[in-house]
Amino acid sequence: MEQHQIKPIGELATEAGIDADDLITFGKYKAKINCDNLDEKRIHNSKLILITSITPTKAGNGKTTTSIGLADGLNRIGKKAILALREPSLGPCFGMKGGATGGGRSTLHPSADINLHFNGDFHMISAANNMLAALLDNYNFHKQGSPEEMKDVYWRRVLDVNDRSLRFIITGLHGEKNGLPAETGFDITPASELMAVLCLSHNLEELRERIDSVLLGFTANDKPFTTKGLGVSGAITALLKDALLPNLVQTAEGNPAILHGGPFANIAHGCNSILATKTAMHYGDYVLTEAGFGSDLGAEKFFNIKCRKSGIVPALSILVVTTQSIKLHGEVPVKNIKLPDQGGLLKGMRNVEKHINILQSFGQKVMVVLNQFDFDTKEETDLIANWCKDNKIVFAVNSAYNQGGEGCIDAAKKIVELTAEPANDIQFTYDLNDSVDEKIRKVVRTIYGGDDIILEKKARRQLKRINELGYDKLPVCIAKTQYSFTDVPEHVHKYNGFIISVDELIVNAGAGFIVAVCGDMMRMPGLPTVPAANSIDIVNGEITGV
Fold this sequence. Notes:
Blueprint: H1 9-16, E1 23-25, E2 31-33, H2 40-45, E3 47-53, H3 63-76, E4 81-85, H4 90-94, E5 102-103, E6 106-109, H5 111-115, H6 121-143, E7 150-153, E8 157-159, E9 169-171, E10 182-184, E11 186-188, H7 193-199, H8 204-213, E12 215-219, E13 224-226, H9 227-230, H10 233-240, E14 247-251, E15 256-259, H11 274-283, E16 286-294, H12 295-310, E17 316-321, H13 323-329, H14 342-361, E18 366-371, H15 378-390, E19 394-398, H16 400-403, H17 409-418, H18 436-448, E20 452-455, H19 457-469, E21 476-479, E22 499-508, E23 513-518, E24 537-539, E25 542-544
Parallel strand pairs: 3-16, 3-17, 4-15, 4-16, 8-11, 17-18, 18-19, 20-22, 21-23
Antiparallel strand pairs: 1-2, 2-14, 5-6, 6-14, 7-12, 9-10, 12-13, 14-15, 22-23, 24-25
């Protein structure tokens, strides 16, 4: 669909049943939605479909392209389907990944706006995060030498860029008037705890309460110090007031898409906001949402954190695969993954099987969807289809990249059939009353397939403090590589017989979870040799290459 064919946002909203009074427009094609009047009964009756994938590879899997295609396919067969997705981060858009609005005929619009500044949410989160850092530094400057001075400062600054040189910095140089010298650093905005706080809040009141609870560090007299103690929760909430509202855009076929929030799944919980998902469920009979990376990361956190917090339950989980990714998991060399190789494809199905088992461990119905490419052969497609049939898993093909919603009609019909019955109750991986280390151990054993965990010295010290302060009943958010089930990216083909090392346990009290850092995790990514930014330009007034 060309730019001039996109529906005006008011028309799109009216078709979706959104009242004009609940719309805050940003030009002709974007808006925010006021969520004050959500109906829990309508939300309960909506069919939520979770889109996840097998373990990521260099070839990608195409969750967003598939999500958009399935939504368009459902609308093509007369169902009222709405997307509920995350917003793209500028870091990956200008870094290795590029844009995140789908591809081919399965895209979101206005694409360039969504990939760049959009409606300002990430900028507001960055501003709020950095304002809190400045206020904390100011407090510490004026409290120096007193028992209230900060001994340990946990809060770091953020920017929505990939900039490895900012990971570790020194602030407060050049004399006392410029503050107290301190080692700190920058994370990328999706890693900010305020991003998770925003995504897990139902309303402005809860947002304020969560900001109150953010643990900023410890004072000289070893007391925990929070945003509430700093006395600036109201100011930080004010900066996030507009960011709390979900954003409305559309697919290339003129169907509604609600985008909001963007925590990464390897360093955060990897899901869009509760408000966006519930808003989509209020207006749509079918809602398609994503969880970042593979099911072992994004989907695990979707169930154990987001669903536990919100009460929403997916009626179906869809596992997205490509022949290229499956071949890479079948140890086919990268240079050969576009060539037919049924042996490599069959060997790679062990990764598909592993992710199916993960989703089924939550009590989910599972459907495998092949994101099809032009070079995929009928024989290879049939191999995957027959494997699924033998394992009693429903299979469908997504051809939306070339055919739009028409290429997902068969998949859409199967979604309707699979979700005709009420959703199964979620079987959580752990109980909140389990100890923190036991929660992590259960995820490692049940989800990853590992044998056990090792708490390193720093993590053991942090666990003692967590238990003393009463944070031990929170769920866990494991930060680890997305490229393998272990904590080592290179262990792509390791499925069992490993141990996960937990290096740190970080309290995200505002977000309401404990982050377990496993392996060499960077909360501020770097740029590749040739960043995607090298391909971005403006031609005849139009942004290209995003």
